[in-house]
Design goal:
Largest sheet: 7 strands, mixed
Strand order of the largest sheet: 1-2-3-8-9-10-11
Strand content: 15-25%
Distance between the termini: 24 Å
Helix content: 25-40%
């Protein structure tokens, strides 16, 4: 059954292409495209998102507040949720190897990290790997005794808190371990907001407003193992093969695209996989298209 993002992407493309996309009957022996059309073109849809953010959001909604009979303050715990900024980063412009300089340095017994190694290390960290996240279930109950220690010591902000005693040091260490170093702030309770622990999500991403930031993230996704199924699904038998990526608000430039509309137009050239002739990116109300011959085009949808 098609997901909501897949059905939305299908509707957007049908509107732009002015022709229906037809459900493709899967081949049980190999990955298959999601849709084809009257021109025998293939379309494979993928949602590009932070699964960790989606999962944390669901968990927090069911564990949003823990009412405490022990605490006298209301603690706000802001859990950092991974976004696509944390999962995919553009490759930095590492300098080319200067063989003469490298030879001179290595003569002195030192080892030089070459450009290829630095690029490989970057990919090892920012190729869509799953990020560890805190366990939200029962988090309030587990935090309660440690936050009580901090309250008793007069600490209302875990960021920059002083380790005054061994007990406070242990409490701070446990809070950081349980929350993955979340910021925890205490406030006086009110009539409607009593003592306890309120858990929320925060995202520590950088929004640039630059369309090429999104394009670089697309390039990173295509260059990662996450694109394997898309490429394998687009068989060479079809006359043209379309990869369709759907983005949500876990993409830092999502709101930039909504604000700019069709003027949100990248210029960064992509090195498309051999299996992809045309790449589409559905970013809310903006549809981007990339083909090697024409570059990027943008549509408001």
């Amino acid at each position: 059954m098609a997901s909501e993002s897949q059905e939305n992407a299908r509707a957007v493309l049908e509107r732009i292409l002015k022709r229906p996309l037809i459900d493709f009957k899967p081949d049980p022996r190999r990955p298959s495209p999601d849709y084809t059309d009257e021109h025998d073109e293939a379309f494979e849809m993928k949602r590009v998102t932070s699964e960790e953010l989606l999962r944390l959001g669901d968990q927090v909604r069911s564990e949003e507040f823990y009412a405490s009979m022990t605490l006298s303050l209301r603690w706000a715990v802001a859990i950092k949720a991974p976004t696509l900024y944390d999962k995919f980063r553009a490759m930095p412009p590492f300098p080319d190897d200067d063989e003469a300089t490298i030879a001179a340095i290595e003569t002195d017994g030192m080892r030089v990290v070459r450009k290829a190694e630095r690029e490989a290390e970057h990919r090892a960290h920012f190729a869509g790997q799953t990020r560890e996240t805190p366990r939200i279930r029962d988090l309030g109950r587990e935090l309660e005794p440690h936050l009580f220690v901090l309250e008793s010591a007069g600490i209302t902000n875990t960021r920059g808190a002083e380790w005054r005693t061994p007990e406070v040091r242990r409490a701070l260490a446990e809070v950081r371990r349980l929350t993955h170093d979340a910021i925890c702030l205490a406030h006086e309770p009110s009539e409607h907001f009593g003592p306890g622990i309120a858990i929320s999500l925060t995202g520590g991403y950088v929004r640039t407003g630059d369309p090429d930031t999104l394009a670089a993230r697309v390039h990173g996704w295509l260059d990662s193992p996450l694109s394997n199924n898309l490429r394998e699904s687009l068989w060479p038998d079809f006359t043209r093969r379309h990869g369709v990526l759907s983005f949500d608000s876990s993409e830092p430039e999502y709101q930039s695209a909504q604000d700019a509309g069709a003027t949100f137009l990248p210029t960064l050239e992509l090195d498309l996989p051999a299996e992809v002739d045309v790449l589409w990116c559905v970013v809310g109300g903006v549809l981007l298209r990339y083909a090697p011959a024409t570059g990027w085009t943008a549509h408001s949808v």
